[in-house]
Amino acid sequence: MTENLPPCPECSSAYAYEMGVLLICPECGHEWSPASAEPAGGAAEDGVIRDSVGNVLADGDSVTVIKSLKVKGSPSGIKAGTKVRNIRLVQGVDGHDIDCKIDGFGAMQLKSSVVRKA
Fold first, then answer.
1. pTM
2. CA nearest to 98, candidates 71, 59, 70
3. Are residues 84 and 32 in contact, defined by beta-carbon separation less than 8 angstroms?
4. What phi-psi label fits residue 47: left (phi over 0), alpha (psi between -120 and 50 degrees) or beta?
5. Which of 30, 35, 38, 44 has its CA 20 to 30 A from that of 21?
6. Euclidean distance between CA atoms 48 and 30, whole angstroms
């Protein structure tokens, strides 16, 4: 093995191997294309935040929550289809990159992977 393969993007294992055009991690079973892994890292470095379907988000946009979310301290949570207006993009903790105010819940942070641009 003279080739240096990139580590697994899921578990960071160094034991990835090639099978055809895909790279496979034997520890977690994740399969990925080496060509698709590189541009994804480049987009995150540019500071572009995208929603669940790939639309670029900006401060002041309105988004819709695409799946029901549990909220600590609330018996009901946020239902799918809830519209959130006037979002603010931030460098949040643990992937929470949208700062917003939701009616009935107050100020909170959401992940861009659970919203769609309205």
1. 0.60
2. 59
3. no
4. left
5. 44
6. 25
Strands 88-89 and 17-19: unpaired
Residue among 26, 29, 34 at smallest CA distance from 6: 34
Amino acid symbol at 52: S
Give pLDDT tens digits for 90-113: 988 888 999 999 988 899 999 999
Asked if 50 and 42 count as a contact pair (C-beta separation under 8 A), the reply is no
Closest by Cα among 97, 61, 99, 104 to 82: 104
Q: Are 83 and 105 in contact (CB under 8 A)?
A: no
